[in-house]
Amino acid sequence: MSNIPSELRYATSHEWVRNEGDGTVTIGITEHAQELLGDMVFVELPEVGENVSTGDDVAVAESVKAASDIYAPVSGEIIEVNEELEDSPELVNSDAFGDGWMFKIKLDDAGEVDALLDAEGYANSIDED
């Protein structure tokens, strides 16, 4: 069973969202998603300053098995990307909820975070997969 931190929110497309409490969120892919993908070899990150809407494909995670789109779980402006992933994409595998974060968004609507799944809801969604 994958680790699913209870303080985070989740999208059914396997992104996690950490509310930073200042109108911004940090986003990455879940431990479950990185386990499905396998060893990361490349992560294509979005452009800082780009405005994204919920459901937009904004990044790509490439592993030895497959390439997978990463979607924006909330709407807003990309304010930071994890540049360490350019040289060390394996951080997504070793620390999916920490050093393997992908990008940060300044929220258009903080209420969107509340609409995402909690840990139990996400656990139920992956049990159905």
UniProtKB/TrEMBL annotation:
One Pfam family recorded for the sequence: GCV_H
Essential cofactor(s): (R)-lipoate
Record PTM N6-lipoyllysine, positions in chain: K65
SUPFAM superfamilies named among the record's database cross-references: Single hybrid motif (SSF51230)
Record has Transit peptide as a keyword: no
Signal peptide range in chain numbering: none
Entry keyword annotation includes Plastid: no
PROSITE patterns reported in the protein's UniProt record: BIOTINYL_LIPOYL, LIPOYL
Keywords of the record: Lipoyl
Cofactor binding remark: Binds 1 lipoyl cofactor covalently.
Residues annotated as domain Lipoyl-binding: 24-106
PANTHER family membership: GLYCINE CLEAVAGE SYSTEM H PROTEIN (PTHR11715), GLYCINE CLEAVAGE SYSTEM H PROTEIN-RELATED (PTHR11715:SF3)
Subunit structure: The glycine cleavage system is composed of four proteins: P, T, L and H.
Family: Belongs to the GcvH family.
Free-text function comment from the UniProt entry: The glycine cleavage system catalyzes the degradation of glycine. The H protein shuttles the methylamine group of glycine from the P protein to the T protein.
NCBIfam families to which the protein is assigned, alphabetical: gcvH, PRK01202.1
Protein's name according to its UniProt entry: Glycine cleavage system H protein
Name of the encoding gene: gcvH
